[in-house]
Protein: TRAP transporter small permease protein
Amino acid sequence: MKALLATTETVAAVFLLLIALLTTTNVLSRELLGVTIPDWFDGSQLLLGIALFWGMAIPSYRGGHICVDILWEHLGPANRRRLDVLAAAVCAAFLLPLAWMVWVKVGGVGTQSTSDLRLPLLGPYAIAAAGISCGALLACARLVELLMNHVRREEEQHGS
Structure:
C-alpha cells in the first residue's frame, strides 16, 4: 500500500511540476522572444486535469480532506469513528461513479485532438482516468479499513 501511495503522490507532483514548467516557459518565451508555445493552453488544461485526479487519491485514502470539524470534535470516540465511516462511504460513493464516467469519456474521445499541434487527447484523458480510478480504489480501501477497525472496536467493547 505504501508503494501505491508514494507512486500516486509522485505522479500528482510530477504533473503539477509540468504545469509550472510549461506555464513559466510559455511566459518567458512570449515576453523574451515574442512567440508562444503551441498548444500551451490545451496542454496546461490537460496536465491540470491529470494532476487534480491523481492528487484527489491521497486525501481520499488518508482522510485529509479540507473540512470543518465542528461536529466531529464534539462527538465521542465511537461517534467519531462512525462519522469517519460515513465520510469515507460518501467519498467512495462519489469517486466510483466519477471514475466510471471519466472512463466513458475516454472511450468516447475518438480522434479528438488539441487545436494547434493536433495531439490526440486519448493519452492525457486515459492518464487522468487512471488517477481518478486510483482515487476511487483508495477511497474504498479507506472505507474497508475504517469498517474493519470499527467492527473490531465494537467487538472489543462488547467482549469485555
